[in-house]
Amino acid sequence: MKKVLLVLTSADDMSGHPTGYTLSEAADPWKVFRDAGHAVDFASITGGTPPIDPNSERDEITELYENDATVQAGLRNTAKIEFVEADQYDAIYLVGGHGTMVDFRGNPHLQRLVREVFETDGVVSAVCHGPSGLLDVELTNGLRIVEGRKVSAFTDSEEAAIGLSDAVPFLLSSELEAQGAELVAAREDFEEAVSVDGNLVTGQNPASAAGVAKEVVKILTTLVRAEKAEQAEAAEELRAEKDAEKAPDEDSSGA
C-alpha cells in the first residue's frame, strides 16, 4: 500500500465568480486510489474545509465520495500545505478547479512539496487547472519542472468555451508553454487527454481525472514490485550468508 495526497484549493472566489475545487476531480481519483488499495489523505492551501465549486457536476462516484465517512472526516480539517512533509507520501495529486488559479501558483509551500516529491522519485500528478501548481516550480538543477516535459492541462480554447478567459488571472496552457512545457491536448475540447512523462502525470480536464489516477497507480504498482524484488533479493543474500556461516561448522563436526 502506498500513500497519496490530494491537494485542494482554499479559494472560493475568482474575480467575483464563486469557485473552489471541482468535485469530480477529487472524487474520481480518490475512488481509483482507494480501489487500488492505496491510502488517501487530503491537504489544502490554508487548511480546514476546502470549498467545492458550486458548478461541480454530481454522479454516482461523487455521491460515494460525499457520503464516505473517512473522506468527510479528512475534508473537515485538511492539513495546511505548509505543514505537509514530502517524505510521508509516495504521490501527490493536484486537484483542479478554478480556485487553484487563485492560490496554487506562487505558493512556496506547494512548490516545495512538488519539488521534493518529484526529486525523491515520487509521483507528481495534476488535472485540469491543477497544473497551475506546477508553474514556477524550480528543481535543484535549475530547470523548471515542466520544462521539456509533456503536460496536459485545461486549454485556452476550453477556457474561452466556458466564458472565463477574462476572469482567470492567466491562461494556464499558455503559461505552461511559456515555461517550456510540451502541451498535449485532446483533438476536441473537453475530451480526455492524459500525459505521462516519467514521474509527472497530468490531465486536461474533468474527463481526464480518473485516467490520471490510473496512470499514477501503474507507476506505484511498478514501485511496489521493485521494492518486493529488492526485499526478496536481500532475503536471499541473507540466507546465503547464513548458509555460508554454517558450512565450516558442519565440516568440522563431520571430521
From TrEMBL:
The keyword Lyase applies. The keyword Lyase applies. Residues 230-255 are annotated as: Disordered. InterPro entries: Class_I_gatase-like, DJ-1/PfpI, Prot/Nucl_acid_deglycase. Residues 21-218 form the DJ-1/PfpI domain. It comes from the Bacteria. Keywords: Glutamine amidotransferase, Lyase, Stress response. Pfam families: DJ-1_PfpI (PF01965). Residues 230-249 have a biased composition (Basic and acidic residues). Belongs to the peptidase C56 family. HSP31-like subfamily. PANTHER family: GLUTATHIONE-INDEPENDENT GLYOXALASE HSP31-RELATED, PROTEIN/NUCLEIC ACID DEGLYCASE DJ-1-RELATED. This is Type 1 glutamine amidotransferase domain-containing protein. It comes from Luteococcus sanguinis.
